[in-house]
Amino acid sequence: VTPGILAVLRAHRAHATFFVIGSHAEQHPELVEAIRAGGHELGNHFYLDRPSIALDDDELVAMLLKTDALIRPAGPRKWCRPGSGWIDQRMIALLADHDYHPCLASVYPLDLTTPPWFNQWHFVANARPGAILVLHDGGPERAGTIATLEAVLPRLQERGFRVVTVSELWAMRRGAAP
What is the DSSP letter of 42? Predict the structure, then answer.
């Protein structure tokens, strides 16, 4: 569903950070390039879709670097979202050793187990200035993400929100230009 997500973001002049799973990037390099060409940011979500907190140090670094080589993140900072959203101090230190900064979320849906209308309500109800909202892309089972974006983006923009990448948000919080 990534092309559909990109089309909705483009229609609303919104930008996002796509936290990419390396094995998916390896299978679909054309989508990685489409994300980059759309002015979006690439973040690292490790090589496999599994809880990264359970990885030992060597495996964690190997999965981080393998994905890094596939997505070639560019920009002022390199962001990493841990698999399953769990992180500890050990992981933060290992990420820092490789010039990565962890990124978690403010609003996280259960978009595989709840209908799009619920996620739409959840996002609009919980969006705050500076919030990081997580949605998932992938195969057809993730098509609800497109419907969620189509409904939520205009409502957030009506409330005066701009949808930006994590690096743009970081720069705004620090009072610098992205």
Answer: E
HEC readout, 17-48: EEEECHHHHHHCHHHHHHHHHCCCEEEECCCC
90-122: per-residue pLDDT in tens? 999 999 999 999 999 998 877 777 888 898 999
Length of the chain: 178
Q: Could you give the 3-state DSSP secondary structure of residue 108?
A: coil
72: left (phi over 0), alpha (psi -120 to 50) or beta: left
Mapped onto helix, strand or coil, the DSSP state of residue 134 is: coil
What is the tens place of the pLDDT at every residue in 37-85? 999 999 999 999 999 999 999 999 999 999 999 999 887 789 999 999 8
Q: Which residues of 23-38 are buried (b: 16+ CB within 10 A; e: fewer)?
A: bbbbeeeebbeebbeb
Question: What does the DSSP 8-state code read for residue 49?
Answer: S
